[in-house]
Every structure is written in structure tokens, then in C-alpha cells.
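Quick one, T. Sequence first:
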Amino acid sequence: MQTFSDRIGRLIPLILGVATLAGVVLLFVDDAAPRLFPVGSHDTLAAFSLVAIACAYVVFELAHHRSAAQLVKAILLAAAFLFWAANQFWPNLPEASLFNDIAIGLFVLDVFLVIAGWPPGANDDVLDDCGNGAKGCSCGCQTCLRAQGDVPEVEAGRHFSRDEMNER
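C-alpha cells:
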């Protein structure tokens, strides 16, 4: 059962995500009809979207009680988005190119860590997190049932109940 703080912790990233998507829609509208927006709004909208999704992702990871290593990886990815946002927001600064290069380096490192499988187990439940996660959720999906041991296993065409599997 989720506590109130768990529900709020899961709601905040969703709200930030919706705000981010709204910012991206405005960014595309600005691309299509730039005269509808004030001068310089494109850079602000781009930076806002990147900062908002970085914050949403870190809050999301915190709300899902990830391991310290997974949290470090999430912060690394958020930092990449923040450096990219800095490049978008201040494109005329002498450091803008450096901000962009740092963002590229962090994105590349993040993808490399995914490929390398660090932190261990981080990729095991990327797409199966629902409710309280596969380890404690009771939503009834196949992944959660399997994690809880409620999906019968098959051996040589025979299905085994949970009790039979526990006896093995």
C-alpha cells in the first residue's frame, strides 16, 4: 500500500513531465510561427523543457527509492540535461560550447553505462515498474505476478502452482 508521501512523490514527476511536454509544444509552435512569441523566447522554452525534465527524472528516481548507484546515474543524466539547457539559454556566452561538450560527454557516458550494465541490475526492471514496482506491486500485470511468484511456471508442458514451485 502506498503512503501519501509516496503518491505525492510519484505525482510531482508526472506534473513536471506534463509541464515539460507543454513547453515542448510551445517550442514547436515557436518554430512554426516565431512572430507569435517574443524575441529570445525560443532559447528560454528550450532551456525550460530541458531543466524541467531533468528535475522530473531526479524526483522520479528518488520517489522510486533507487539504489545509491542508480541515483548517481540519474543525477549524471540530469546534469547532462542541465548543461544542455545552459547551452540553450546562454548560447552567446563563451562557455556555451563547453556546456554543450559537457552535455555530450555526460549523455555518451550515460548510454555507455547502460550498455555496460552499470549499476548491476539497473536494466532489469526498466520497463516493469508499475505501482510500487514489480517487487511490491499488486496491480496484477504479468511482470508483477511473476515477481511475486504468482505466475505458474511451465516445465515440459506442465504448469506448476505457486505452492508447487515453493516446494521445489
